[in-house]
Amino acid sequence: MTNTAWRRPVISGVGQSAIGRRLDRSAYQLSVDAILAAIADAGLTPAEIDGLATYPGNAVPLNPGFNGPDLYELQDGLGLKLNWHLGTSQGPAQFMSVVAAATAVAAGLCRHAVVFRTTTEATAQGTNGRGGLGDSGFELEGVLSYLLAAGAVSPANWTAFFTQRHMVEYGTTKEQLGMVAVVERAYAQLNPNAVLRSPLSMQDYLESRIISSPLSLFDCDIPVDGSMAVVISAPETVPDLDHFATIEAVGTAMRHRPYWEHWPDLTTMAPHDAAAHMWSQTDLRPADVDVAQLYDAFSPFVLFWLEALGFCGVGESGPFVGDGARIGPGGELPVNTWGGQLSGGRLHGWGFLVESLHQLWGRAGVRQVSDVEVVAIGVGGGASASSMLLTTGR
Amino acid sequence: MTAPRVSVPQTRAESLRDEPPPWASLDDVAELGARPAITAENKPFWDAAEAGRLLLERCQSCGLHLFPPRGICRRCLSRETAWVAVEPPAVLHACTVNHHPWSPGMSPYLVGLAELPEHDGVRIVGLMQGFAVEPAIGELLTFSFHRSAVGIHRLYFSPWEQV
What is the DSSP annotation of A313-344? Predict the structure, then answer.
């Protein structure tokens, strides 16, 4: 379409493993399932894959089961002959690996790159409740170290600070947060792969236990096991592809301090930087977006993303969500049509990417939105975020 | 030392319960948190914390108060920095009541984010003790340091007593 800043790469295939609460399968084997499915969906063979990337790869885990397998285990185990590869944990949020691979194929470093994300947080958590971060005894450096040393051990605590400020400054209500959870559950009931599919009413939501005020249980995403993968291909491969989605623009900006507690305006988050960067690279506008996929580690993230991407004004996201009709099934801006991480499962950003491709390729079954040509995806929150605009390329 | 008590504020959802939740003591929350890496840049901060004082770096060239400490001003890149002691009060910027038990049987406790308005609005995070109800944004706080299970002395907020 309109981005002249780069040779637009495409996504040519998508795959996923089984997704579930406690699959008790290794991260390595789940990853192989997802990767092989994505390669087959692209109409390729492993011999044609010359790029491989994941986030975070072999890094210090903040939570058990968070990291997924070592990148090199997959390169070796699949016999891949790579021209480009990357496994890393510092970059623009959950899509750092996707953006890096897109950049690599656009620059000609490789032709077909597989990018995957695997988590086994549900199995690793076992039958215990969710633990705090950084309580595993290691010595912590970096941007989270002061928060965690202070005893603010969960992103739920940090997100609560932002949510409280949004409520106090703009009048955002608990019911508006709850509507995000209720709408996502309604979508999840249309998605056979979602992990939480029983009906959720506003009353269920309001009566659920508090996690960290004002956030309660159904404001928080649910850990799962699973792996998802995509194939990112160079633009010159398009004539050979059965289907593709164009990566029209990405947002990777970081323009403020990388600390949750030092973020200047707690009614905004890093998504505002990423979204502004993304829109600066395309002539497409928020009104052109048919479906939005917005990260929801916690329900208020959806509100922050709605404002950041310009679907509504700053401070207006609560009323924008309102009674749920606008973002729900059949609404003018369907949001998180697979159930989001609140009901679909915490696939750490990747559920949004995979659902975007399903929607663009008409594969979303009973939850398919009609005539989808442009999807906006935003992942991350707090002090780190990235966004993407995918199109049918028409 | 007798552990001071962390009071638990009433929220709307809590009022639905039959009984008020128990209070978390400093001992209850002592296990929370991670051990920060002590570096050449931050060692004076943690040493001062052990002595009960809050230290910030201040750029001697442009005057900006710096946190976390790095020995180089993040605004003007001057390497002339000095340590300054910060006295209460801090101003509450946001707070949350943590209910999720990170270890079995843990009681609810308050976590606060406060600003230091006379120090370029540097923000500090800490657990809160001694509050009968959830404090409002803008409330003045005093702070003190107590040893945590990971061996560092960390900051706690309590109500500011006007003199």
Answer: -TT-HHHHHTTSTTTSTTSSS-B-TT-IIIII
Distance from CA of B80 to the nearest CA of A (A): 22
Are A266 and B94 an interchain contact pair (Cβ–Cβ within 8 Å)? yes
Subunit contact B102:A154, Cβ cutoff 8 A: yes
Kindly provide the ipTM of the predicted complex, given to two decimals: 0.93
Per-residue pLDDT of A291-327, as tens digits, reads 999 999 999 999 999 999 999 999 999 999 999 999 9
Q: Residue A4 — very low, low, confident or very high, per pLDDT cuts 50/70/90?
A: low
Which residue in the set B33, B93, B101 is minimally distant from A151, CB to CB? Answer: B33
What residue numbers bound the domain in which B27 lies?
Answer: 5-159
Q: Among 3.30.10.20, 3.30.450.20, 3.40.47.10, 3.40.50.300, what is the CATH number of A10-126+153-391? A: 3.40.47.10
Distance from CA of A350 to the nearest CA of B (A): 26
Q: Which residue of B has its CA nearest to A220?
A: B100
Nearest to A88 by CA among A70, A110, A64: A70
CB A267 within 8 A of CB A165: yes
Q: Which residues of A touch B115 (CB under 8 A)?
A: none
Instruction: Measure in Å the smallest separation between the Cα of A382 and chain B Cα atoms.
Output: 15
Average pLDDT over residues B136-162: 92
User: Could you state, in order of their start, the residue ranges of all structural domains in chain A?
Assistant: 10-126+153-391
- Of A226, A192, A223, A186, the closest CA to residue A205 belongs to A186
